[in-house]
Amino acid sequence: MTSATAAAAIPDFAALREAVRERGLLESQPRYYAFKFVSTLALAATGVAIVVMVDQWWVQIINAAFFAFVSTQLGFLGHDAGHRQVGRGARMNEVLNLGIGNLLLGVSASWWVSKHNAHHRNPNDLDSDPDVQFPIFAFSPLQARRIRGAVPRFVVKHQAFFIVPLFTFGIVNMRMHTIGHLRSARVRRRRLQVALLLAHLALYLSLLFVFLSVWEALAFLAIHQALFGLYMGSTFATNHKGMPTLTGQPDVDFVRRQVSTTRNVTPHPVTDFVLGGLNYQIEHHLFPSMPRNKLREARELVRPFCEARGVEYRESSLLRTYADILRFLHAMGAPLRRGASPEGTSSAGSVAGEGRS
């Protein structure tokens, strides 16, 4: 695609944005988010009350899974605050993001926002998108051939089988990144973030080890963190995994860069709730600050806009999405199953569509 083509796409998108604005889809939704925050925090309070008041180990096992669900729902709200969807001003969204990320979830809000913004700028770019840069996963044949080490290469060979169990370590990985981020040279509100993280750790461990036996507390902690990572990872994986990459193509216009690398999951009230609105990922990437409850209505404008301009608008059921992701991951590990050596690299991997399932 030439630079002229990229420039020609801008007026079209401007017209779409104006139509979205005229419908009021970019306006803040204080009532909706007030309800979401109150209801989600009420669920969290219910889980805390069960820890404090119930003396049955099997109830606490179920409660740990419930806590994982609530934690991920809080994560969705933190995601929305990070995109400034919740409040009218930057300050309110930042306060909410710090409160959810650092205090309630134990993950640096500024690290998350920085990483996520980099993803939004270049989705599925193997060189620039941090969400497709992992030491033990490959999202293109070239990435697979570049994997070093016997264990990482074994994992990538069979990554379709390893991805689900590895999701359970996702929150541990996020906390490791949090530590590295807060030790870096430039971190906004470093002391406040560290204080909130320490408060999270103190409150969380006190809740478990004061009201539960040691073994119950350890079991709760392990189940909660593992299922939290599994739920979070399986949600975000639906958005881009298995979709084309656009590495090394700076002339691709904004709409094609965002839409062609992104997948929606078919709308349904249950899906919308369970996936936190992230199933409208195409609309979210085109309008990141759009409140979550307006994405479905925006879909009515975005889908025909893309189809009229020959931009593929990919939408699949949840089960089909997971099947496509697993097939894609298995295909990307094929070079290592065929015995490709780490040195056997080629520039052929950096092409649009290489990552298509």
Structural description of this entry:
With about 350 residues, the chain is mostly helical. The protein contains 17 helices and two strands. It has a two-stranded parallel ribbon with strand order 1-2. The longest helix has 27 residues. The radius of gyration is 21 Å and the shape is globular.
Tell me the fraction of residues in β-strands, as a range.
under 5%
Q: Segments where pLDDT lies below 50 for 5+ residues?
A: 1-10, 344-357
Oligomer: single chain
Helix and strand pattern: HHHHHHHHHHHHEHHHEHH
Measured distance between first and last alpha carbons: 22 Å
Mean pLDDT: 90
Spatial arrangement of strands, main beta sheet:
1-2
Structural class by secondary-structure content: mainly alpha
Major sheet description: 2 strands, parallel
- What is the CA-atom radius of gyration, in angstroms? 21 Å
- What is the helical fraction, as a range of percent? 55-70%
The total count of strands amounts to: 2
Label the overall shape. globular
Tally of helical runs = 17
In short:
This protein has helices at residues 3-22, 30-53, 57-82, 90-105, 109-121, 141-146, 150-157, 159-167, 170-182, 190-211, 214-240, 254-259, 269-274, 281-286, 295-308, 318-332, 334-337; strands at 263-265, 314-316.
